[in-house]
Fold each of these.
Amino acid sequence: MDSYSTTSSSTSDPTLTYGYLRSCPPTLEVGRTRGVRSGSRVSTLGKTRVGSWNIGTLTGKRIELVDTFLKSNVDIVCVQETRWKGEGAVDIKDYRLWYSGSRIARNGVGIFLGKLHKDNVVDVGRFSDRIMSVSLIIKEETFTVISAYAPHAGLSEAEKKSFWELLDEVVRGCPADHRLIIGGDLNGHIGVEAEGYEGAHGGFGFGPRNEEGRSILVFAIAHELVIANSFFKKRDSQLATFHSGGRCTQIDFLLLRKGELMTCKDCKVLPAFTCSSQHRLLIMDIVTRGRVGRRARVVQHRILWKNLHGAKAETFRATVADRLSVEGDNVAPTNVDQIWNRMTSTIREVAKETLGVTLGTSRAHKSSRESWWLSDDVQTKVALKQMRFRELITFGEGTSAERTRVEERYKEAKREAKKAVAIAKDKAYEDLYRKLDSKEGANDIYRIAKARERRGRDLVNVKYIKDEAGQSIVREDLIRKRWEENFSSLFGRDRPERNGELNDEVREYQNNWFCKRINHEEVRTAL
């Protein structure tokens, strides 16, 4: 965490700060003033809400965080200080999280994507425990979202320089046709006024500027980026992103390319939503070419064949035999196809009635699976803990005795909720392990392991492919053309044997699998 700094400066040369950047573009134009919306077509464009949040730690907050994202309608969230080890991906209710950490529970960054976008990911880049990126497709546009967590005040200059150099390299590697968004805790104060940084600063900042803030502004100018926070005039409560000990600062920022600033319609802090006692959720609304609508998903109810054992198996067998005998007496089939169709339809109907069917797709029940062990008592105590926490955060002026009373009420509710969760989990997992120890549980273990491995992949559903240059193809006609070219090359439009150019030696050993023919001596030796 960065502490409030009183260092400020009126103007300075951007190229002299820290020496982190390898180059700087020519002089930029003065940023637009707030309220200019020329060419805006909000009514015909879709809106995507992007957020950035230093959450302090991800452990024990996953469900509470996702509930906050759902209430605030955030589609993409860059999170910092996750404090999770290693790297991977995990589904949490309607969101999917990609995270990157270190070997110890320190630092760590991640990116949450909502249900409208989590299946449109084409690339994931993990560069360190402070920087990672995700590329996704939104309405035929490729977005590259970067989550960054800068070293806070007090760390060495070498560590700060290493961070900015790596971030510089990542941003330079982003293609020019991608829409770039950087969200992160950059641990710097950019100041209230632009004062020489008009190309990146919009003139609506918060607090005095320090050296770390100059590094942020220099970095933004060098890459032709703008700091969205500073282009909208807001109240102090909607500008300050960090609160500690009665002091407020602005150290969390959302950046995007200068040419895309007109697509940003709002950027502010949401003080009402908090899962941390210090940082606040920062959000930005941007427009895309078309509205992001939900695809009509065809729900196929699958038969629960796993229930085919015991009494249900005997009932199923007897019912099928009775119906087939009755239908055989009433209808005389004329060919084999009719017999087959009659048997399959009868078996399916009896299976649905006897064994049951699924309620819908597995994706529709992820929220219930995430907290399947929660009972009514646990939910009541967790809700009480959240209410006590909000009371503590929103506590204003009052005596120290009153504040102590509020803190004690929160601690007591927290202890009770933690105890109830532990008891409910122990009981639920004890029943689950007892089932897995049985003979029928072997298949359940395999399915659980397979599902865990599948959910941990970065790209679960591949919907978009890349061309020969490595660029993502988003149009359906170009995707079909690319597949056609790929299969043409695989199945030998250009292979020599198709054109009669196969020599006699190769033709002698040719077979359908393109391997050398097995001779009699090899067979005799094997026998």
Amino acid sequence: MPLRFEISFRNPLHLALVLCVLAVSGGVVGSTSEPSIQWGECPDYPEFKDVAAECAFIPVPLRYSNPGRTAPIFVARVRGSAPETEKRGQLWFVTGGPGASAIGFAQQSQSFAELRPEWDYYIFEQRGIGNSAPLYCAAAADEAIVAPEDALDCLAELRRAWPEGIEDFTVTNTARDLAHIIDRLRPPGREVVVYGVSYGTYLVQRYLALRGEQPDAVILDSIVATGYEAYDTIERGTNAAARMVMDRCAKDADCRRRLAGIAADPWTALGVTFARLDQGQLCPELQARLDSPLTRSYLRSLFGTMIERTDLRGLMPAVVLRLNRCVPDDVMALEHLIRSLSSESLFSAADSEAPAADPGPGFVPYEQVKYSAPLSSHITLSELWEGTSFAQIMNEAEGFYAWLNVAPSLALLADAQVWPAYRDPLSDLHANTRAPALMLNSDIDSNTPLAEAIPIREDLNGPNQRFVTVPDAGHVVILNSLMAGAKGDKPADHCGTRVMLSFLDDPYGEPDTSCISGVERLSFDAANSRNRKSSLQYLGRKDMWSAK
């Protein structure tokens, strides 16, 4: 699932820009032939800068019951430098969302190719996203989830682009696309390993249910287990993760002492903070300096963002203290935090006014490539939504101190009953493969909570199928499990990547998890190097606790 900050129902600040229909192929389906694949230059996107990648469009059946009609699927690859005679095979990256682009794996592919040159690395862009037959509507161009009042206009745009309808943009068809393309690109005798992350793990499980014999190994990172409607409960998971962080503060004598003037325990101190906000007594000097009121929804989203990010979790108790202490230095630090996080938004004015260079013929512009609100809404309401009403969600959320504000948006669209969610008889299929599997999850993950990830063991429980919990890691374990003392600018700086590489070297052996003991643990110490760096960047202060 994508990371989120403050999400209003019409102006999400956290997600990448929505997609536009391809100028060349758009919603137009292709011919019945399967011409030879032409690999060429990749689009001029920042993700491909200094990456030795090749890109191609590969036709797949738009509707597998009628394979004569095709749609283009975008694939990028980075080839390892080992001689072809020494190549082992292919590693395929499948990203999450739903609705997010996979091009972020371009830089990772380059790094992995340097670490393990005996593999070639493939980036699979799912149908409906980016350059893969994108679903786009101008009516939802600034939305994370299509708003109910925009749904009819959006659907009309989609019907013009896709006269066949959007019912073919399903998890099952996307899983079939992956299998179809691997069949076309797999050299004889070479291994295939498929890596899925977040929602991508859900998609890979469908792929394994359909073609479990195809891959030689599978890696699932930050897991959405089949049968668990993740989006109805995503706010609950975020609040639970916040409770875990504040309970850690309670066990830290210094952290607990610093908040003792607010309440006896840190979790209660967080509740006092919201009570003061509701009473109009929470740091009025800060409120006067902000462009928008500091509402309960906004404050919960702020804490939700901090919980998701391993570099900001340790600052959360200090932010609680600053909100309640509210001396002039606190006001300046808190304003710095709010403006810093807002400026990082992919929906900021700077992004829209300064897009990347012309990506070239056949590719969508960069500002339109990263996310599809229609596809996200379509997949989520069809397969990842149990049906909780907006009123039920908001009633439960009244007691939350951290959230992503995602479930309310989805509930509004679902309650309006305007979006044509599909019903797929194969959506209940569970992963079925004898291939070795590595499953990774953090114990503090608001997007894919550990308790909801563990049920994957009911399906993948073979002798070479292993579940590894990485403590204090973040969502997307291979990128958010920093080793203590490491800078984090290299994949091998993260324990998740080390475990993954160990598994890649020998899927039938016991993966090397010795790095887990060296993972940077959650700390509330101002002298901690990660806290000091994050405090300087986001609070403008070397010491996250002190006031001048």
Amino acid sequence: MDITEKSFSLSRRDDGIALLTMDVPGETMNTLRAEFVPQMTELLTQIRNDNSIKGLVLISGKADSFVAGADIAMLDACDTQDKACELSAAGHQVFGALENLEIPVVAAIHGACLGGGLELALACHKRVCSDNAKTLLGLPEVQLGLLPGSGGTQRLPRLVGIAKALDMMLTGKQLRPKQALKMGLVDDVVPQTILLEAAIKLVHSGKKRPKRKLSLMEMALERTHFGRNILFDQALKQVERKTQGNYPAPPKIIDCVRIGADEGMAAGLATESRYFGELVMTSESAALRSIFFATTDMKKETGAAGAKPRALQKAVVLGGGLMGGGIAAVTISKAKLPVRVKDISEKGLSNALAYAYKLLDKSVQRRHMSAAQRDNVMALMSTTTEYNGVHDADIVVEAVFEDLKLKHQMVQDIERECSEHTVFASNTSSLPISQIAAVAARPENVIGLHYFSPVEKMPLVEVIAHEKTSPQTIATTVAFARKQGKTPIVVKDGAGFYVNRILALYMNEAAQLLLEGQGVEPLDKALVKFGFPVGPITLLDEVGIDVGAKISPILQQELGERFCAPAAFDKLLQDDRKGRKNGKGFYLYGKKKAKKKQVDTSVYKVLGITPGVAAENAQLAQRCVVQMLNEAVRCLDEGIISSARDGDIGAIFGIGFPPFLGGPFRYIDTLGAAQLVSLLQGYQQRFGERFAPCERLITMAANHQRFYD
């Protein structure tokens, strides 16, 4: 019996209510697939022709999910726009048949109800969801470069209003049960134990839904053609500001909603289907889908072939600074592991506790958790100024100053105070792990765990193995990072590891352009237009000019003259410019700060330059980006990263490399190795050896090779 014969079952109750249960065999979550269409069509025909059925409840047979969306893999099988369009049209047909049933239809939702899953629920006449924390509702297709293709762009605005629907679809945000109820997305929120009972009660209340109450503003904007045009124009402007025109899906989402509102449901659905087909075939969607598949595959890997992680029961964090506080916070809030923070001062410990409390309290303010839940999570965090209560730690994360002697002391202290299996993970951004492990009695337990700031927001961590790190230590550290909600990539030990190494040349080139007379603002704008979340000069201010200056000499010493930092760093530090941290950098901070971020023009005098006419955005961006691409290939060639996939994920999640380009390696495939070599050689002739293309790129160009098939 094939999968479609088992994925849906119809059962009839004595009271005339039928239950349509979805339970895809062999999967932990339900996903919608094209091959389900015939079975769903047949079942709906049965229901329509059975006069004994007075109402229908759709429910999932899975323990913790309703329907997590459509199976993304089937989109990759679409080799033409027409085939993708047909997928959407098939969804329209089935969901339309469901919506047009004359009996009341209610969706009983528990767990993930996303993408096609929510579109299925929207085709029902009413919806009830559980109050469980695992229940989330949303249309996240935009994050894959797509739009909701099974009627979502038409049914959601009609249910919750145009403005709220656009906000959901353009951001891909996921709503918790109470938010969904307040918005009118669901009709009721109940405990999971009575979900089916509540759904049946809703069936008995009939198909008719009470009219949504509109404010005067909503009436003016959404119920008139003139008002809607204002709303759609504003949405387009916001989208353009946010995406810089690099993502084709958001404007098409807006257009689908506009056509549906102005010309009716049929016209809206036809537009949705056509645009869905177009978007599936775009390079942007292909790149974003590749990220989805890569991160999904990585979750199945331990980081070391054949190795199993040790069980994790308790963690220790050394250092109560910003990094230590952030690491401790995600350990208690995400990993739900007890954590002991050790610092030499009570002030450091107080700061770490305050940091974690502030983050958790934000969730209370947003009603994502109760005050009691916050306090229960905080109870997982304890502190000490001595090595008390650390002996049973499974992993110790060291987040002290970047000082090798101090880190050596930390290794020796932990080996003395903890068990022989305790993993010692150093959060260092520049020091080689082999040097930190040099004093260890058990070097196999020593590993690098490089977080990015701010810890609670940045998704990537680099897990750095030196030559003596054991496979089990790698697997345990990867498992720990995943529990914290992070995406870990395993990298080989070496100066700058991977992310900082490719970032350094990019930042150096931006600084070089600045010294040549490019303005701070035009330079930042050029890289934002290219697709980075912030420009390189803004990033330097945020990270700290002093941090950049400290890392550069280490990279230059270990990796060569191409890492020689421009003189800009020294001049800025002599003027005590460290960036945001001391309120003095390239931009104005503190009392001088205007509503819109403004350049501190006095920085030009410090650098001894007069900014001239800016070069074109594309030229400025290209010169910085090709440096990053070239160095990424070197890292792969040297085994710093084990695959192009890891390199792409590291760059996207670590430094915000434009996701719509798929990462440095996918972007090189798009450009072509020969084109990149040609660009690098052109810059090499003009600016020197720092642009020399690496050998692997030259070989790939000569042999017309790619990183991905």
Amino acid sequence: MALAPLAAQAQSRNADQELEDLIPDSALDNPDAWARDTDAARTPVPDIATLESPDTLAPMAAMPEITLPWPDAADLPALQPLSPDPDIALAEEEAKQAGQVLDAALPEGEGANSIRTQIANASISKVGGQIELAFPPDLVFPERDAVVARFAALSNLKALDDNDDNLAQLSRRAKEDIDLLQQVLRVHGYYDAQVIQSIAGIERPGEGGAAPTGQRIDANKAVVRFDVVPGPQYKFAKIDLGDIAQASNGAALRAAFKLNPGDPVNGDRIVEERTHLDTALGETGHAFAKVGQPALTIDHEPRTGDLAIPVTSGGTYNFGRVTSALPRYLSGHHLEEIARFEPGDLYQRSLLDDLRQAVLATGLVSSVTVQTRETVAPVAGRPGTVDVDVTMTKAPQRTIAGLVGYSTGEGVRAEASWEHRNLFPPEGMLRVRGVVGTREQLAGLTFRRNNFWGRDQVLTADLYAQTRDTDAYNARTASFIASFERQTTLLFQKPFVWSVGLEAVATSELQASAAKGTPRTTYFIAALPLSAQFDGSDSLLDPRKGFRAGLRLSPELSVQDGTKSNYVKAQVDLSGYLPVAGKVVLAARARLGKIQGTDLANIAPSRRFYAGGGGSVRGYAYQAVGPRDATNTPTGGRSLAEFSLEARVKTGLVGGAVSVVPFVDAGSVGTGASPALSNLRVGAGLGLRYDTNFGPIRVDLGTPLNRQKGDSRIGVYIALGQAF
């Protein structure tokens, strides 16, 4: 059955009457008929050609008359003047008064210390090229230098001394500096200080202080003057330091804070003494002490100040155990060996800081956090106990390193190494190294354990094979050297260090002058080297004062071709440093050595004394000082004497990092057992030092003053650190 589609209806037949009037039902029944029955549909459409004909166009109606007046005939309202720019007005006013005092008037009734004009016969302190501070001539003012120095460091005028300012800018900065100067005076307890500012020294091109039109006043010739009457200095009336009076060592803590009622109020001293008090608490067992920020209340009537610093001292504590967050990497037991305290010692904050730095110095960690933890609380005046927790982040443990160097007489030397710094925890290092050079080749294996049985104690075992070709001998050597030593470090420079060792050496050697085909001599050597040094200098790498003294003893047994020889090799080193005139350090060195117990022929050439080179007598080649054979080849000796004197002169170059160092060295080597000054060789020259954060870089040029045959005229030496 087919269905007819229904017509879509947009409107209901029961719509509102307003819609029915607009669209009747007849429009729904027959839309087309309804549309044709409208007025619009019955209006005829005009012919487009007729519309475009010029004949059909009607003339344009005349425009209405314009009655508005033109602007030139209108009465416009008068323009209101703009508000003057304060800087321009100030500049005009100052230009009128250039060269006169600009009086910053004070309120009336400021008392006997009030000033309204410049101080007569004032005592002047100059600050830069355009600033003066003027004080009463008979004023007793102990803090004057400190006030002037701080004002100079903070002044806007001083900081912009070279700027091309106009007079208005200069005056504005001067008025800002009035507030600064008063703040500086208040730091030193002068809360009633009177300050006026004036500007003088400006040239006046016109009469009566008026500059001709268009002519600029030169503010760079102005001098800004601050006249200052400090007034009375305020004193401390009360000082409240929290609960330190109840601490077991309260009297000592109060003595560490060196401010008392009646002392002058001084902001710098408050900060300084608060730091002293905090340090005293941390160094006397108060592991959890807290020192708050100071509060100063000023009372202007009696001219006093009340100071309150909230302090919570807490109880005192002793150190307990050290625990490690990485026990298999750096154990707590090993950290206790590194620490400069033991369980039961009184807590000291500085020792915690030292432990943190020492752990970082191992090179095995990239960050360290050291914290204290209470394990036993203080009871009845008895100290409690704090354990020390060390949290670490591992650093890379493997290193590949290289070194290339050159020196006159020794040629080129290149060294490369690979190491694992914690292959055998804790701090058990293994290094593989090799050397290739003009006169040296080496392959070696080194084991080292740092902080062994104590802080900065090192156990080392070194096994290597080496070929060395010098002007004196050629040696092919296999060596095993072990040592146990206490070292000095940049972190903890020690006055006394020592070393004990064991050497087992097999070496095949030949004098450099030996004829071709001469058989080599093989030596088997056992030695027990011992050394000790006292260091009373002020720096490990760049000493400026003090002295050092060192002693080396090495009992040795040498066997060659079935012949046994026993002898003792001894060496004494002395050096001293004396500052002169601030920028000059005089440095002197002496070295004496002897081999006692056998003839020179029984001593392997590599074990004899030699002199010459960058660490000995500069100007001469390495090993070039001393006895020589018929072929002019150094033979070495049984005794040694060396002396050096140099002046380390600081310059202003590169921020003072460059020093010039003239030097004189002298030395001799003898075949006898006692050092002698016969055949003394002298070298002199000039060096440069460039200071870095890891020590000075040294470049020395020396020349021999009494050359022998074969000696070069110039020696060049480059190294890290001072020569001695």
